[in-house]
Amino acid sequence: MSATIVPFGPRLHTPIGHVIRTGEMSHRQYEYLHAEGRLPAKHVIVDASRARFQKEFIRALRDDGADVILDTKAAELSEVGRFRGMAKSAPWAATEEDRPLNPGDFQLSANTDLFGQMARMAVELGITAVMAPTHFLRNGANDPWLPIDGAGVMRLRSALDREGGAAIAIDYPLILPHTRLQDRTDRARLIQALDGLPFDNLILRLSGFGSNAMPGTVKGTFIAIEALHGLGRPVLLDHVGGLVGLSALAFGIVSGIAHGIGEREQFSARDWHKHPKEREKGASFGRPIYVPLFGLDKTFRVKDLKAIASAPGGRRLISCPDRECCPRGLESMLQNPRAHIARQQFAMIDHLGSVPDTRRIGHFFDVDLRGAERTARDLARLNTGNEKLSGALVAGRNRIDRMAGMYETLAERERGTPLPMRRRNASGAASGHGAP
Fold this sequence. Notes:
Layout: E1 17-21, H1 27-35, E2 43-47, H2 55-63, E3 67-71, H3 74-77, H4 114-125, E4 129-131, H5 145-162, E5 169-177, H6 178-182, H7 184-194, E6 202-207, E7 209-210, H8 215-227, E8 235-238, H9 242-250, E9 256-259, E10 266-267, E11 291-293, E12 298-300, H10 302-310, H11 314-318, H12 330-335, H13 337-353, H14 360-380, H15 387-410
Parallel strand pairs: 1-2, 1-9, 2-3, 3-4, 4-5, 5-6, 6-8, 8-9
Antiparallel strand pairs: 7-10, 11-12
Helix pairs in contact: 4-5, 9-13, 9-14, 14-15
């Protein structure tokens, strides 16, 4: 008696959107990584405030087939605590009047050609998508910026078409506190406001959320994000990395994540409404680089990593074992931390993307989460001689343990398959107008 072979359809591998933010302070280092072949990014966000200094970089990315997305920085330029920062270098900042942008600047009656300037910059630089000039909705669906932002998408679309950018698409940044997204009434009204607008991808930036979020916040936010799938658009999580970002991809919560290389992995707009404090004399510009311990899902300053390495057994736990990444182990890792971080981030997401959709949660549990649990336990046992540092290692282990329990319960929920991120490439193939 012969066996009956039941044919199965092809295993579904939904592409994962992995977007790199070059930021405003570190873009030169991203250029060096790309030139050295260490930044294999297919989707890159450049800030309008620094884009004019990145023309060569943008051209190189486009030549490699990458999509380049322009962040207009409208959210920052419209907040009293942010408009005088780096964002003020965007061409449409109200620098002469030294004030944040206000609702009137985004109206048809405005004297400034704000949307035209955005469209012309995108066309000139060869940008493939523009992030709509939306704002921080601190009051969620009740925020007066919401209808202005909806109308702004339409005006940006018209400006792009008029300026020769019909093939340039629009992505919609939805920026609000994570607690507002978790509110069912707010969420339903937000979905209603976004429905039918001409954009491709919904880019979600949540204040109070990121790679350092605690288990309850992660679970509640993930469940809220699932409701956004009803829009029929791919959803990306912005300013999120680490295990939180990886799990969002594995569980099919989002179509992609966006972050920097060792930065921009969490987001807070809590103080955007406050006047910034005066910078102290002699204070350095830029952000310190925090190197992640991927097994602990926590970042540390270089001096703290050296202290951990000095503890008996510590060096083995934190040194990069990938000799193609770091030929001299810890020494190479600390000498060029961005190259190390980039390789490890891309490797984790590429490995997950190579797994069929139905097995991604299992891969996350067996490879990423279990590996983090083992490393966290070993690190927590180290005697660093520094009470604060040792306490951070123990706290990191406790968080990993709690996250593991939360993910177990999250895995029991029914889930769907996210839509692949809508993207264009160097061939210029783009809808440019989203889809209802």
